[in-house]
Amino acid sequence: MRRPIVLILLISIIISFVYTKNYKDKFYDIEGKYIEVEGIIKDAIYKEYYYEYEVGNFLIRDFNKEQKINIGEYIRAKGIFKSSYNMVIDEFDYGMYLKSKGIDGILNCEYIKSSKSHNIYSCIKNLKNSLEYVIEDIFRENSSFINALILGDKSELDINIKEAFSRAGVSHIIALSGLHIGIVIYIMTLIIGRINNVVKFFTISALILLYCIIVGFRGSMFRACIFSFIIYLAVFIQREYDGISALCLVGIVLCIINPFNIYDIGVQLSFLATLSIIYFYNKIDKYIKCPLVSTTLSASILTIPVVYYKFNIISNVFLISNVLIVPTVGILIGLIFIGIIFYYIKVNIIYLMISKIVCFIIFYIKSIVFYLSDIKYSYIEFETVSLKLVVLYYILLMTYMIYNERKTVKEQLNEVRGYN
Question: Which of 1, 122, 244, 390 has a CA between 20 and 30 Å from the CA of residue 156?
Answer without folding.
Answer: 122
